[in-house]
């Protein structure tokens, strides 16, 4: 997004995905003639790329040493997403060959995998064949997808049978106005609670992502979002301060409206307010963000969310998983400091592996409202509060 600025800090600047341009750079570097700038071609592919040299990794330093990416980009065009600038000038979503992806998985030791793909379910045909190939490998794994993709029958079932146990889902906002404003069209007219129920029914935990600071967000958005998430028995939540990254449609709009506070890129980290929100102050936005984290992971909210599953086994898993990561951060920091974080991997694998398949339904706090138009379903009690 800012190649000219980056050029002041580097001899060579790479623009876009680097699989092709890196090879060109190595050739030029060996010849002693590296260029100042390398841009990804318009047609991008990760077919036939060399396998990752995992023998060079110090596996004991990682809680999740088996991280991998089998696709690039995302088929959607949310206006706040950094990838719009990164993939500009060419195809923005493409996958590996299924056989190459399965070969990479087969080379990985251990049981646990973490797919870092932006949207592993984004190409349904690729994902279906990948999950078919993974079935019987004995893996447990985590990844990311959209609420739209998990509501469709078929793909989630295959993923769960192949070992999916936890899914990052970008819910982002409970306000349909916010979703429209930011081109999050894949979330419009989707029943969030139905998606959560489908995940739980197939033994999959959810890490729900929410973004605060959109124009329809008032000062009460933090408490109402946390309450809704707890009532929905969401195991873990990731909260963000909306951040207008350079090169995105959001950045262009916020800059045009004169709402940018500064261009200190170190603070463009989804934890700091770097623009003026429409319905609260920047300080309100930052304070609410931290308060949402504290409140969601309070002991009584972890317990309430766990109870909402309606059965002891799933409630215990919810409680142990959420509490294990957020209430014992001091332990994780100690393990990281002494380079012993890999000791936590068996606990992670056990907590995921024991989330067996079975019929589950999270508690519903109030009668669900029907989805109308481009609306989304929220509980009656929260709907009475209005807004986001």
CATH-wise, what's the superfamily of the largest domain? Answer: Aldolase class I
Q: What amount of the residues lies in strands? A: 5-15%
The level 1 CATH classification of the largest domain is Alpha Beta
Query: What is the level-2 CATH architecture name of the largest domain?
Result: Alpha-Beta Barrel
Helix content, binned percent: 25-40%
Q: Could you please describe the fold and organization of this structure?
A:
The chain is of the alpha/beta class. It folds into 2 domains: 1-41, no CATH class; 46-383, Aldolase class I (TIM Barrel), CATH 3.20.20.70. It has 17 helices and 10 strands. The strands form 3 sheets. A 6-stranded parallel sheet has the order 3-6-7-8-9-10. It has a two-stranded parallel sheet with strand order 1-2. Mean pLDDT is 91; it is low at 356-375 and 377-388.
């Amino acid at each position: 997004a800012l190649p000219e600025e980056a050029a002041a800090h580097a001899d060579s600047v790479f623009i876009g995905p680097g699989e092709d341009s890196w090879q060109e750079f190595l050739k030029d570097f060996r010849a002693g003639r590296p260029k100042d700038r390398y841009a990804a071609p318009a047609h991008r592919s990760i077919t036939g790329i060399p396998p990752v040299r995992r023998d060079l990794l110090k596996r004991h330093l990682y809680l999740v040493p088996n991280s991998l990416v089998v696709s690039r980009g995302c088929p959607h065009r949310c206006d706040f997403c950094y990838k719009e600038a990164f993939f500009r000038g060419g195809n923005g979503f493409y996958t590996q060959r299924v056989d190459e992806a399965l070969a990479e998985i087969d080379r990985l030791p251990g049981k646990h995998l973490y797919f870092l793909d932006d949207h592993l379910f984004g190409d349904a045909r690729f994902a279906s064949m990948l999950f078919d190939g993974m079935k019987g490998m004995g893996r447990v794994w985590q990844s990311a997808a959209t609420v739209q993709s998990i509501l469709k029958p078929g793909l989630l079932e295959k993923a769960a049978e192949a070992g999916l146990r936890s899914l990052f889902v970008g819910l982002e906002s409970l306000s349909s106005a916010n979703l429209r404003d930011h081109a999050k069209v894949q979330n419009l007219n989707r029943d969030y609670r139905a998606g959560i129920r489908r995940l739980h029914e197939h033994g999959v935990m959810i890490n729900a992502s929410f973004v605060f600071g959109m124009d329809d967000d008032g000062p009460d958005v933090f408490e109402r979002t946390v309450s809704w998430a707890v009532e929905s028995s969401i195991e873990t939540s990731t909260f963000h301060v909306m951040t207008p990254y350079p090169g995105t449609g959001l950045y262009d709009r916020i800059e045009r409206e004169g709402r940018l506070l500064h261009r200190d890129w170190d603070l463009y980290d989804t934890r700091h307010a770097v623009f003026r929100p429409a319905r609260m102050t920047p300080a309100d936005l930052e304070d609410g963000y931290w308060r949402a984290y504290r409140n969601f992971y309070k002991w009584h909210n972890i317990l309430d969310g766990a109870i909402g599953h309606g059965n002891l086994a799933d409630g215990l898993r919810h409680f142990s998983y959420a509490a294990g990561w957020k209430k014992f951060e001091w332990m994780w920091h100690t393990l990281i400091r002494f380079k012993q974080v890999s000791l936590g991997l068996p606990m992670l694998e056990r907590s995921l592996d024991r989330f067996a398949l079975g019929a589950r339904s999270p508690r519903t706090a109030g009668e669900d409202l029907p989805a109308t138009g481009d609306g989304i379903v929220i509980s009656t009690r929260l709907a009475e509060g209005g807004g986001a």
